[in-house]
Amino acid sequence: MVRRQQAADRAVRPKLRSPGHPKYQRHVEAAFWTEIAKGLLPEEAAVVVGVAPAVATRWYRQCGGMRPFDSKPPSGRYLSFSEREEIALLRAQGKGVREIARDVGRHPGTISRELRRNAATRSGKLDYRASVAQWKADMAARRPKTAKLVAKPGLHAYVQERLSGQIATSGGTPITGPMTGSWTGRNKPHRKDRAWVQAWSPEQIANRIRLDSRMMNPCASVTRRSTRPSTSRAAGR
């Protein structure tokens, strides 16, 4: 009877997208860039922080060798991944909301909302897991708003010139970006990053804007969104 009900639930429920491999936490990426600042190579820093060399190389390549602006750990206002792991362990032990709140040091309302909003539902019931809860929290933190690159045409042109490798002189003469060899990458989903190898990375553009103009000072995440479909959707609005 239980199997029949589960099959019926799968028949009416739309197919859920798998979150894939859990994303590395911010403190791991922050530790990686700390080792890079000490002068280590990406492969050497990967060994220190405990990530795969391919992942470390991709972090370094995507950011153009510069520390990203959003690599800082979240403030104490939000639950961290370690706190979510502790909540999952206490929940598996059968403890209640108030008892978990006392052990974690959070308000019972915070624990109650966390267990209700960020629980895994693929099994047909509320099953709290730290990795799924962190993934849901990261997805909920993406608040849609009008992109700066849509509201400011001059900033949009500035970013596009450097992403494409076409930079103009003060007289308007275009300067071709650096010519590099073909690069296939070590992972097919990340082959699109080769465009940033031939031009400027979002972090490089965001840092250069500070020197070129004080009126245009976006963060690197805004610059990175210029190559994503979300910007075109914002333009349609």
From TrEMBL:
Domain (Transposase IS30-like HTH): residue spans on this chain: 75-118
One Gene Ontology cellular component annotation held by this UniProt entry: cytosol
Segments of skewed composition (Basic residues): 13-23
GO biological process: transposition
Alphabetical list of InterPro entries matching this protein: Homeodomain-like_sf, IS30-like_HTH, Transposase-Integrase
GO molecular function, one term: transposase activity
Coiled coil: none
Compositionally biased spans, kind Polar residues: 168-185
Region described as Disordered: 1-23, 168-195
Signal peptide annotation: none
Comp. bias intervals (Basic and acidic residues): 1-12
Pfam families, A to Z: HTH_38
Protein's UniProt name: Putative integrase catalytic subunit
Naturally occurring in which organism (per UniProt): Actinacidiphila reveromycinica
